């Protein structure tokens, strides 16, 4: 949640035209038509907004390496006549995501790169995204759903879960997901398979092992399953509304079948050497999640999520989810009046009907001036309580929780509201980032001994296996390069 930049002021029309996060069996439409002037213009307009929303573009040798591989694979598509036709960005985001937009703009997050195990996988992911652009999937999705905006698709799904399909529910759902890195228009299964097939084609043309498309999808499926277990979900898959790479597990075999009989290089050791030291997980500049704690060293604040709830740190908001409700921590413009601030958050929830709390109460939380209010809202799936709890950290700076619970259960988040606190400079300096450390397996090393070096207190072996693409029965071998996650400086 760095600096709380929001897409609220961005042009969602421009973004919805182009953006689709992801990561076919039929005939693929013309996927070699060059980039048009209108596509280049749309991409140029959306590009700075996307960088702001997804943590900004990283710089340095790691970003340069990703750019090099991305341009090499992108030219295989025929979309551009030269490497200069493409802009490839490594995003400072802790979610596993990659996407591309018309105009030759290609993106992958550092977290997804950290999950990969060779250069062919990196080329495969970026080639998959280029395939979406080459097949004009965004335009086709847009034509089928002109009413959808960047927020609309995900918002409608979430509102269906929480509030039914009422217009008010959609507005609240959109507000909940606004600024989250989960917000991307998802492609159909057919389009995902088409992009996989195009990515495999590009890999083969570039001399990479096309089976890398299947192995990176397998790693992503394993990561999704691990994330689900860490979040305490009974189901070993991320729910559809929270997955920007829908159903990777079911696409693995299809990708393997498409790549059958093909071969090429993987450049594993080169890749691992080039990503050594890459930031992993949350960037302290954006705030970090440690168990149930969210700590933001730059903003000097922290809070604790309720037991049984999990958090996702987005670029402009932190989402808190559980079986009995959902909440989001974010900010809005502040004029020095907390009552007005709380009311403005409620007012922004719906364009169709006014959402008004029964009252707005003032209080103090751990020495921080605060105000809160709750509104009972009717929806097609029943009544819910919407709570806004705001805190003044300075004369011109305030933050708030927006929470939705079933009617009568607004107290679900009371402990979290009361846990908001300032942190000291010493506490802030103690937040140390995690980074990748690429090491060479030595004699006597085992999965268990290497996993014990991981900078986590739980599930060390499972995290190590997923990070290195190792199944439950695979072991490490002497001389093999592997990744571990350690505390940086």
Automatic annotation (TrEMBL):
<dbReference type="InterPro" id="IPR036779">
    <property type="entry name" value="LysM_dom_sf"/>
</dbReference>
<keyword id="KW-0378">Hydrolase</keyword>
<keyword id="KW-0862">Zinc</keyword>
<keyword id="KW-0645">Protease</keyword>
<dbReference type="GO" id="GO:0051603">
    <property type="term" value="P:proteolysis involved in protein catabolic process"/>
</dbReference>
<dbReference type="Pfam" id="PF01435">
    <property type="entry name" value="Peptidase_M48"/>
</dbReference>
<protein>
    <submittedName>
        <fullName>M48 family metalloprotease</fullName>
    </submittedName>
</protein>
<dbReference type="InterPro" id="IPR051156">
    <property type="entry name" value="Mito/Outer_Membr_Metalloprot"/>
</dbReference>
<dbReference type="GO" id="GO:0004222">
    <property type="term" value="F:metalloendopeptidase activity"/>
</dbReference>
<dbReference type="InterPro" id="IPR018392">
    <property type="entry name" value="LysM"/>
</dbReference>
<keyword id="KW-0482">Metalloprotease</keyword>
<dbReference type="Pfam" id="PF01476">
    <property type="entry name" value="LysM"/>
</dbReference>
<dbReference type="GO" id="GO:0046872">
    <property type="term" value="F:metal ion binding"/>
</dbReference>
<keyword id="KW-0479">Metal-binding</keyword>
<dbReference type="GO" id="GO:0016020">
    <property type="term" value="C:membrane"/>
</dbReference>
<feature type="domain" description="LysM">
    <location>
        <begin position="437"/>
        <end position="484"/>
    </location>
</feature>
<feature type="signal peptide">
    <location>
        <begin position="1"/>
        <end position="20"/>
    </location>
</feature>
<keyword id="KW-0732">Signal</keyword>
<dbReference type="InterPro" id="IPR001915">
    <property type="entry name" value="Peptidase_M48"/>
</dbReference>
């Amino acid at each position: 949640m760095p600096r709380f930049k929001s897409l609220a002021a961005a042009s969602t029309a421009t973004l919805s035209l182009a953006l689709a996060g992801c990561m076919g069996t039929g005939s693929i439409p013309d996927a070699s038509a060059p980039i048009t002037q209108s596509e280049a213009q749309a991409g140029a307009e959306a590009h700075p907004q996307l960088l702001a929303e997804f943590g900004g573009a990283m710089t340095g040798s790691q970003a340069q390496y990703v750019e090099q591989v991305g341009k090499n694979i992108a030219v295989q598509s025929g979309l551009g006549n030269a490497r200069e036709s493409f802009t490839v960005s490594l995003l400072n985001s802790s979610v596993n995501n990659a996407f591309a937009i018309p105009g030759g703009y290609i993106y992958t997050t550092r977290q997804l790169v950290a999950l990969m195990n060779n250069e062919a996988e990196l080329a495969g992911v970026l080639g998959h995204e280029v395939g979406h652009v080459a097949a004009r999937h965004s335009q086709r999705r847009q034509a089928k759903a002109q009413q959808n905006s960047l927020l609309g698709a995900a918002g409608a799904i979430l509102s269906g879960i929480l509030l039914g399909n009422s217009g008010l529910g959609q507005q609240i759902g959109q507000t909940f997901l606004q600024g989250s890195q989960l917000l991307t228009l998802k492609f159909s299964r057919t389009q995902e398979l088409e992009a996989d097939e195009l990515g495999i084609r590009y890999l083969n043309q570039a001399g990479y092992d096309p089976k890398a498309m299947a192995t990176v999808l397998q790693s992503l499926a394993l990561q999704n399953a691990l994330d689900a277990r860490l979040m305490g979900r009974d189901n070993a898959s991320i729910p559809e509304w929270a997955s920007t790479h829908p159903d990777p597990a079911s696409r693995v075999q299809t990708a393997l079948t498409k790549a059958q009989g093909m071969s090429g290089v993987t450049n594993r050791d080169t890749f691992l050497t080039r990503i050594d030291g890459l930031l992993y997980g949350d960037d302290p500049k954006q705030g970090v999640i440690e168990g149930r704690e969210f700590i933001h060293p730059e903003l000097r604040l922290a809070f604790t999520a309720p037991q049984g709830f999990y958090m996702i740190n987005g670029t402009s908001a932190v989402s808190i989810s559980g079986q009995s409700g959902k909440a989001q921590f974010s900010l809005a413009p502040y004029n020095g009046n907390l009552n007005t601030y709380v009311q403005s958050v409620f007012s922004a929830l719906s364009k169709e009907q006014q959402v008004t709390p029964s009252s707005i109460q003032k209080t103090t939380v751990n020495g921080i001036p605060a105000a809160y209010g709750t509104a009972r809202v009717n929806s097609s799936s029943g009544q819910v309580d919407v709570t806004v709890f705001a805190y003044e950290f300075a004369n011109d700076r305030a933050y708030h929780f927006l929470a939705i619970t079933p009617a009568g259960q607004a107290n679900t988040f009371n402990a979290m509201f009361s846990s908001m606190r300032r942190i000291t400079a010493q506490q802030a300096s103690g937040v140390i980032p995690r980074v990748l450390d690429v090491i060479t397996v030595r004699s006597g090393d085992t999965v268990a001994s290497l996993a014990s070096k991981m900078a986590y207190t739980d599930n060390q072996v499972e995290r190590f296996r997923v990070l290195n693409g190792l199944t439950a029965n695979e072991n490490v071998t002497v001389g093999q390069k592997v990744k571990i996650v350690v505390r940086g400086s």
